Amino acid sequence: MRMLKRSGVWVGLLILLLAACGRQQTGQTTAPSVVITAPVAGQQIPQGTEITIIAAAADNQGVTKIEVGVDGVLLGVFENPAPAATVPFEARQTWTAAQPGPHAVMAVAYNTAGVASAPAAVNITVVESGGAPSPTTAPTTAAGPPPTPTWTPIAVSSPSPAVVPAVTAPPTVAPPTATSPPAAKATATRAPSGGGSSRPAAPGPITDFEKFGKWKRGDQPNGTFTQSAEQAHSGAYAGKLAYNFPTGGNDFVVFLHTFPLGGRPNRVSAWVYGDGRKHYLNIWIKDAKGETWQFTMGQVKHTGWQQMDAWIDPTAPWPAGHIDGPSNGAVDYPIDFRALVLDDVPDSFAGSGAIYIDDLSCAQASPPPPTPTPTTPPSAPAPVVSFRADATTLSAGSCTRLRWDVENVREVYLDGQGV
User: Fold this and answer.
1) Its pTM surpasses 0.85
2) Do 308 and 411 reside in the same domain of the chain?
3) For the chain, which has fewer Cβ within 10 Å, the N-terminal or C-terminal residue?
């Protein structure tokens, strides 16, 4: 759930910060500057909402990484693949506002000399459902002093030719693809691995596959689902779904694991390393009335990592629909995540392959607008022509009268002349 992005939006702001601190001086080793641009200080966030934390940094020698955390707990480390002097670097980290009350969002940047910035911090408040809406601008009152991060710094505070990270994650061995953004290394606290029987208070992470748990295959022996370090969107592991669809009929495979979901989530998301085969990736949800529903994340048309979403909507068309249990036409909360399903497309497909799934989560979010149904303009009615003559047999030099009636005709011609 992490993205790396460079942006020129903060060039002016960050260069001004550098100049104010005297960091343009040749050969001087100073700390980089870092600011948090989202969320804003004082913002109120509804409980269960997923937000994106954005931190931007620059330095007169170049920024090598940004650490992002909440309440002193490190969420992610974002490494700059090409540090350059005074060129800003931006990090984006998603976080679900699960616990009501005040929270401190923090970021620390490091430069090529290994020097860490002072932590940037903004104070926000998570409000229970029905609380005050989020302001669109920062309040005018000054925030208190930023809290001190409690995570272990990854870089030393002075240049060193051999900097050893305090905590590291095995590198992802994914080959570079056009659709695969570079994955950030998660080097500290990550989303819970899940698998417990207790129900969370609000929507949020389901599992990150670091602790794999017990997944059970359904009745169809068409594949395996295992913990794998071959690909990982974050952390060290993902779930590898290896499939083998042997027939030219409708083949699918189901992997079952129950995760109680908190709140009233209407979206289940996962990062999927696709193989471009266009098979449907679906999920099963079991509701409070014992109904099992299927909802789809869509066809896996991509290669590399991409986030896919399944919207919990009982009115959605196939492949969504009721699977098992009593049916009242509604999803009754609370609900449990029940299974991952891969269904072949087309049904005539026969073959094998593998996809990887990581960072499974749920959220209560605004659904995307429906895709408008294309309308066919009404066709023009066919023309109707009735042509006749008073006398149809004529002698040389005699005349007759021509008559016609037309409908849905714009013009009438006789011997090439308009009449």
Assistant:
1) no
2) no
3) C
